[in-house]
Amino acid sequence: MSTHTVGLIMNGVTGRMGANQHLLRSIVPIIRQGGVPAGDTLILPEPLLVGRNSGKLEAAARAAGLTRWTTDLDSALSDPKLSLYFDAQTTLLRAEAVTKAIAAGKHVYCEKPTAVSSAQALQLYAAARKRGVKHGVVQDKLWLPGLLKLADLVRRGFFGRILSVRGEFGYWVFEGDLVPAQRPSWNYRREDGGGIVLDMFCHWRYVLDNLFGRVKAVSCLAATHIDERWDEAGRPYPATADDAAYGTLELEGGIIVQLNSSWEVRVRRDDLLTLQVDGTQGSAVAGLRDCWIQPYSATPRPVWNPDQPNPIDFFAGWQKLPEQKSYDNAFKAQWELFLRHLVLEEPFRWDLLEGAKGVQLAEAALESSRSRRWVQVPELGAP
């Protein structure tokens, strides 16, 4: 069996997401397993870590068992042995770096949001097409076990006609004064590209488009519930970005979606993210890993009577789907698909245009919140 190596620039892997999900739980396991199987070939990434802080880079490389790192992005982009550029930097830095990588002829795989505006995101897509490089955007939630089970139910027609989707996402992110915050401080500063709408509505776009139907319109109310937080150095700062968003969306086919996203909610549900899908023939509730179903034939018949204790145990009527196969890390699963796309020309539809659609929905949601009205989300095509 032969080995096809891919020189990989990994920019932004000293941050939480880049280090944990992309480097340590995706690329390192791929290397340790000997590469991505592709017929009689193994596709093996050879990463060079890039960033701005040499101390953090050295520590990240050591944790991953790697030796190659640099603070010189331009030098890395000029190296012909490095054919793929990956970006997990903060949102404000991404578009400029991805643009430079495309101009250097590198294939591109990057986190989302791909940019801070849909116009800028579409420019990235146009530049990649013009330069003739392959491109992909991380859309990790599509490979979560719970959502894979949900997608399988949709394909099998379990729901009949889907009527509605209800989503609850979030948890309590501590302010940072008495208890350390679980998220970086830039997330709460709009001037630094923060905000839960820009963060999460990019996710909601690809989840809804891929599982249920294209988003047509959105109504959203964004809020900043906590206006002061403490940064990584223990200094107070004003929180200028939205930290909660309450959205209603209309999909093709008449499906109505309600999505609550909040970093100020205490969890009393099955998981940090739950999606309930209700259809004429059945319902399902999916978390990150598990999925529960209730078909029409097992649906209880409650009667409203607040004067007596309800005799129905509403949780008992749901069946947890069994584990019929094993699931890999969601980020790693998409990495492997992109590497196969890069080397074998296999189809890969989650490209920079799909990334731009996520930014478009976030833009529309913020406009809806500012104007207090429904905002249409038109079909997005190449510029």
Describe it:
The chain has 383 residues and is α/β, with parallel strands linked by helices. The chain folds into 2 domains: 2-140 and 330-350, NAD(P)-binding Rossmann-like Domain (Rossmann fold); 141-328 and 360-371, Dihydrodipicolinate Reductase, domain 2. Helices cover 32% and strands 26% of the residues. The protein has 9 helices and 18 strands. The protein has helices spanning 16-32, 54-64, 73-77, 91-103, 118-131, 145-156, 196-211, 330-344, 352-371, and strands at 2-11, 36-38, 41-50, 69-70, 82-87, 107-110, 135-137, 162-170, 215-223, 228-230, 236-238, 244-251, 256-262, 273-279, 282-286, 291-295, 319-320, 375-376. The strands form 3 sheets. A 9-stranded mixed β-sheet has the order 17-16-15-14-8-13-12-9-18. Strands 1, 2, 3, 4, 5, 6 and 7 form a 7-stranded mixed β-sheet that branches. A hairpin with a 5-residue loop joins strand 10 and strand 11. Helix 5 runs antiparallel to helix 9 (352-371).
